[in-house]
Design a protein that fits this description.
By secondary structure, the chain is an alpha+beta fold. About 50% of the residues lie in helices and about 10% in strands. The longest helix is centred in the C-terminal third of the chain and has 20 residues.
Length: about 425
């Protein structure tokens, strides 16, 4: 049977092209296959139904994915065996590169040339920034890299790599973010990197709950691979050639001379690129839907801030919270993510229920240790000068402190007022 599939590769490719040549409805696929094969075969109708059921109607599959579907479909394999001497390619259909409307107000970009025009790039520049052949991974000259790199020690032997795009690539990614990604509404449970949502809105639903479950995703950004990002752009409605280029621009493979780590060596979402937060939220959309449904079935609340997941509820949820966390881990594993189990916390009312730096026991508040550290920093700035406290070498230390005080004010205005008074007295 495998020999038959190999022998009929021209038919496989011709049928795959027919499947992709227009709208993915079963009736239209049957019509296009009749043109391709020269007659209307009865088995094509059920094959088209199975294809639509498997691939769905709202995404551009890759040509190779359609071929793999055909090769693995038992009904099609039986047809190949039964009609081996009769099947011919009567006409080859060339799928037109066009958008599939999905209801979002995103720009129509149907060819690589259209994408180059939209990004104000020459075609060669577009290929250079997308780097679909991962040539940047092999280059050892920093001047040819698209990113600046900074390795942070997370403790325990773990690291976090900050990948900051250089100015030209950053502008291109900001264009994609504003022109495409910001047009797509996020899931209601997602609060990180979303306009008009914040740590405060993330933690607020969990205030005053009997038990709070906090879980973290492991290696959040680097675990999201390039193929997944290209799928996101195909889901938005872009043809494969355009989606691949957009995915290439939004992902990065870290050069070997920067860091020898297999996770970072493959194309992934770079932590530091403007497009990464929005794309990460999109990749988690289906997981958010499943986790929200799971939480509601258990009488619990669910919110997510980037890689921090929070669930909370009353007495009934308290009784099943340990088993519930196992179900959450299974769902995330099925969706391609891993839970950092060492960071999982079940926090009942008798302990400090903290989420993303915010305490949520009776009301939202800043953790006392965080408040005390910031207060001590401001006090020492008054006594010894701000330069003595800039241990991390911030280029604009004043703005850094302004941001930290502003964050406290947004959570607890009364405490923030005290810190603001100290900040105002510092001699800059």
């Amino acid at each position: 049977m495998e020999h038959s599939a190999v022998f009929f590769m021209p038919i496989l490719n011709a049928l795959a092209a027919a499947f992709l040549a227009g709208e993915p409805s079963a009736d239209q696929i049957v019509e296009r296959c009749a043109l391709t094969l020269g007659r209307n075969w009865r088995w094509v109708g059920s094959l088209a139904q199975r294809y639509v059921g498997t691939m769905g109607e709202g995404i551009y599959p890759r040509h190779r994915d359609v071929v793999e579907f055909l090769r693995g479909d038992k009904g099609f394999r039986r047809a190949l065996s039964k009609y081996r001497d009769e099947l011919v390619v009567a006409r080859r259909l060339v799928p037109p590169p066009r958008m599939r409307p999905v209801g979002w107000n995103v720009p129509v970009i149907e060819t690589p040339a259209d994408l180059a025009d939209w990004l104000a790039l020459y075609p060669g520049e577009l290929d250079w920034f997308a780097d679909l052949k991962a040539l940047g991974y092999k280059r050892s000259q920093p001047k040819l890299h698209h990113y600046h790199y900074r390795v942070l020690d997370k403790g325990g032997g773990a690291i976090r790599l900050i990948e900051s795009p250089k100015p030209r690539l950053k502008w291109i990614q900001q264009r994609i973010l504003a022109g495409i990604l910001d047009k797509i509404p996020p899931h209601a449970a997602a609060h990180g990197f979303v306009k008009r949502r914040s740590v405060k809105t993330f933690a607020a639903p969990h205030v005053g709950q009997r038990v709070v479950l906090r879980m973290d995703l492991q290696d959040f950004f680097p675990s999201i691979g390039g193929a997944r990002i290209q799928t996101v752009f195909r889901t938005i409605g872009y043809p494969e050639s355009v989606a691949d280029l957009l995915g290439g621009i939004a992902t990065n493979a870290v050069p070997r001379d920067v860091l020898k780590d297999s996770m970072y060596a493959r194309p992934h979402l770079p932590q530091g690129a403007p497009t990464s937060p929005a794309l990460a939220n999109m990749c988690l959309y289906r997981a958010d839907c499943r986790l929200l449904g799971l939480a509601e079935s258990a009488g619990a609340q669910y919110t997510r801030y980037a890689d921090d997941l929070a669930f909370s509820g009353g007495e009934n949820f308290d009784r099943r919270v340990a088993r519930f966390s196992a179900h959450v881990a299974v769902i995330l594993h099925e969706e391609g993510f891993a839970v950092h189990h060492r960071k999982t916390r079940i926090m009942r009312q008798g302990v400090r229920q903290h989420l993303a730096g915010v305490v949520a026991n009776r009301r939202l508040n800043v953790g006392r240790p965080d408040f005390d550290r910031l207060k001590a920093t401001l006090t020492n700035c008054l006594r010894h000068g701000p330069a003595s406290q800039n241990h991390d070498g911030h280029t604009d230390f004043r703005a850094h402190l302004e941001g930290r005080v502003g964050w406290v004010e947004s959570i607890n205005p009364e405490r923030g007022k005290k810190l603001r008074a100290l900040l105002a007295q510092i001699a800059w």
